[in-house]
């Protein structure tokens, strides 16, 4: 999904921030989301937990939007015209509804609950996303993964995967990237990652073995969930630093809790992220924007066929220079 902000902010990070409330237990921080309206007067509002000043990345995960349940009869649903991406992979995961995806690779696919669509932008790709007429409630997450320097100009690619659920200790887990709970996703990533949806029964506790070299983020969709001893409420993201070989999750509510677990090895490179581009310098962003605005022939980004409408124009660049930023340590 595009970042549809008309004045996208430069990504910043720092030790103290209003978006981070103090850890309630050692080694876990809780990040709160900011609300971002996407589009026009009937815009769908998303809750964004990455990036923010308190934390830029979790592993290579660099962007997390959480949206819905959204009544499309009130908002008009999702209709995102063709827009570009560079230097990243987009990860689409739904809890409810259906989205039609078209891209300049020629892919025509549907995003449905419990099914992963992953698109590799690399040097340049463009795509459109439209909720289908069958959709009444739209609900899910849109995630981005930064590509490492050696692969950030990778060829365009599109992968689809419908993971089978793994059931353990009152939890139902769908592993869409990496490995967890004995299941391994076949989807290719360029850095070590994990991504999984977890449903947890009321008052249940599950302990998951994890790679101690990973840092992890737990984005809660519904229910009050404890990550270790730290309470993470709906729309919040709990952050666990590297060093632990297990994560304990407890559902403190009387209904099923749903969450998305993200993790990976710390991403040590600095990046510049602006609008829908990930680069390493201000000039990278300038060149990508220029190619999109002036490249009607699709030389860098290609062309989306089958979408009825015009491409999204890029916002104006800020007056100052965009600066590379790294992860908070």
Shape: globular
* Main β sheet profile: 8 strands, antiparallel
The rounded Rg comes to 19 Å
Which structural class should the secondary elements be placed in? mainly beta
| Order of SSEs | EEEEEHEEEEEEEEEEEEEEEEEEEEEEH
Number of E strands: 27
Main sheet: strand order: 1-2-23-20-25-18-15-14
How is this structure best summarized?
The chain is mainly β. Helix content is 5%, strand content 46%.
Structure, described:
- This protein has 329 residues and is mostly beta strands.
- The protein has 2 helices and 27 strands.
- The chain has helices spanning 72-75, 282-294; strands at residues 20-25, 28-31, 34-38, 44-50, 61-71, 79-85, 88-96, 99-103, 108-111, 116-120, 125-131, 137-146, 157-161, 166-168, 171-177, 179-180, 183-184, 193-200, 205-209, 215-222, 225-227, 230-232, 237-240, 246-251, 257-264, 272-274, 277-279.
- It has an 8-stranded antiparallel sheet, with no helix packed on it. Strands 3-4-5-12-7-10-13 form a 7-stranded antiparallel sheet.
- Residues 11-26 have low confidence and may be disordered.
Secondary structure: elements and pairs:
Elements: E1 20-25, E2 28-31, E3 34-38, E4 44-50, E5 61-71, H1 72-75, E6 79-85, E7 88-96, E8 99-103, E9 108-111, E10 116-120, E11 125-131, E12 137-146, E13 157-161, E14 166-168, E15 171-177, E16 179-180, E17 183-184, E18 193-200, E19 205-209, E20 215-222, E21 225-227, E22 230-232, E23 237-240, E24 246-251, E25 257-264, E26 272-274, E27 277-279, H2 282-294
Antiparallel strand pairs: 1-2, 2-23, 3-4, 4-5, 5-12, 6-11, 7-10, 7-12, 8-9, 8-11, 10-13, 14-15, 15-18, 16-17, 18-25, 19-24, 20-23, 20-25, 21-22, 21-24, 26-27
């Amino acid at each position: 999904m595009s970042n549809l902000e008309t004045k996208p902010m430069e990504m910043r990070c720092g030790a103290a921030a209003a978006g981070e409330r103090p850890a309630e237990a050692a080694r876990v921080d809780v990040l709160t989301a900011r609300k971002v309206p996407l589009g026009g007067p009937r815009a769908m509002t998303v809750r964004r937990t990455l990036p923010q000043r308190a934390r830029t990345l979790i592993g290579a995960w660099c962007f997390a939007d959480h949206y819905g349940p959204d009544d499309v009869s009130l908002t008009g649903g999702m209709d995102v015209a063709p827009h570009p991406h560079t230097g990243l992979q987009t990860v689409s995961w739904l809890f409810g509804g259906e989205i039609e995806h078209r891209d300049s690779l020629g892919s025509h696919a549907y995003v449905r609950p419990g099914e992963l669509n992953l698109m590799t932008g690399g040097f340049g790709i463009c795509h459109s996303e439209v909720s289908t007429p069958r959709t009444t409630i739209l609900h899910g997450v849109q995630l981005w993964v930064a590509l490492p320097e050696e692969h950030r100009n990778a060829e365009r690619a599109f992968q689809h995967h419908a993971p089978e659920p793994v059931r353990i200790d009152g939890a139902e887990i769908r592993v869409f990237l990496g490995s967890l709970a004995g299941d391994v996703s076949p989807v290719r990533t360029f850095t070590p990652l994990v991504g999984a949806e977890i449903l947890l029964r009321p008052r249940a506790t599950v302990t998951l073995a994890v790679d101690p070299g990973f840092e992890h983020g737990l984005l809660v969709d519904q229910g009050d969930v404890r990550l270790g001893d730290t309470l993470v409420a709906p729309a919040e993201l709990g952050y666990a630093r590297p060093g632990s070989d297990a994560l304990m999750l407890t559902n403190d509510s009387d209904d099923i809790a749903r969450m998305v677990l993200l993790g990976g090895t710390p991403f040590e490179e600095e990046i510049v992220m602006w609008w829908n581009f990930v680069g390493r310098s201000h000039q990278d962003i300038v060149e990508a924007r220029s190619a999109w605005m002036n490249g009607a022939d699709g030389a860098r980004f290609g062309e989306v066929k089958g979408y009825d409408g015009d491409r999204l124009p890029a916002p104006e660049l800020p007056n100052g220079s965009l600066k590379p930023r790294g992860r908070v340590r």
